[in-house]
Amino acid sequence: WLSHEADIEAILDLKRRRNAVILAHNYQTPEIFHSVADIVGDSLALARKAVEVDAEVIVLAGVHFMAETAKLLNPEKTVLIPDMGAGCSLAESITPEDVALLRQAHPGVPVITYVNTSAAVKAASDICCTSGNARKVVESLGVPKVLMIPDEYLAQNVARETDVEIIAWRGHCEVHELFNAQDVRDLREAYPGVTILAHPECPPEVVAEADFAGSTAVMSDYVGQKKPARVVLLTECSMSDNVAVHHPDVEFVRPCNLCPHMKRITLSNIRKALEENRHEVTVDPAIAGAARGAVERMLAI
Ligand code: 13P
Ligand code: SF4
Q: Which CATH architecture has domain 176-258?
């Protein structure tokens, strides 16, 4: 922490001078999450709050698709991401051409796209969703069948909760796909009474054996409301670190998995982002309108 102090001081000063705010995802490390972030949350909260930001500059402490979404919703503001390499295996798993082929194979079936995608894929979609509102979005369309891309496991997990038929794609989150049902059984044996929460990007066999599944914000709320004596969050490691700060009485059991993309963001490159105005996130005007439409339709629900 002491070694972070100079960066924290500099970032707080730069934020004031540049009229900047920092939006941080729940998977950012505690020194970012608790010391310099102005707005924190899951993907849905970050998108919702991006609309309300009253600043000239937004620094997105998270991955590229989140910065792109913030830019879509704030076309006139400067949006910076401290490391352009902060990608996402889900966003990498599908292209707009894939979406066009899916539409050909399933004529008339609406395309619901997880926000963990490029703006170009969003532009080729009817509406977006996050893990926090996926079922609501599916049921809002009033149709018997939807395409839900690109996370196969999220689609399968939502399919268990709704009568709407869901056609999935084959994308996976490289962090959550690593958990399996045996992990859940081993945890129950090793930590009697443990409450097991899983992110819906986990394989369905994991969600089926967990006590509860939800987005990162929903998991955090669950801990706050139910205050389990011991809990494990089957998700990215910083999640437990950040939630644990507010709940000293709860025992947070690991394992967890690190997201190498989220971990590219550091105090030091946030400071550089504000000092050197880098790396600016832009969206091709040819697709920005359609991509924004898909995000705004989601936010209207
Ligand atoms: P949420 O915070 O929306 O649950 O998303 C998890 C995630 O993996 C984001 O990259
Ligand atoms: Fe993508 Fe998974 Fe990392 Fe989230 S945790 S950014 S879904 S790879």
A: 3-Layer(aba) Sandwich (3.40)
The verdict on ipTM greater than 0.90 is yes
Q: Which amino acid is at 38?
A: D
Ligand nearest 89 Cα, by number?
A: 2
pLDDT in tens, 67-77: 999 999 999 99
CB of residue 175 inside a 6 A radius of ligand 2? yes
pTM score of the predicted model: 0.97
Q: Is 148 exposed, middle or buried (0-12, 13-18, 19+ CB in 10 A)?
A: buried
Bridge-based pairing of strands 195-198 and 230-234 is: parallel
Which option is the CATH number for 2-86+263-282: 3.40.50.720, 3.40.50.800, 3.20.20.30, 3.40.50.10800?
Answer: 3.40.50.10800
Testing ligand 2's pocket by substitution, the residue of 175, 240, 258, 263 carrying the most ligand atoms inside 8 A of its CB is: 175
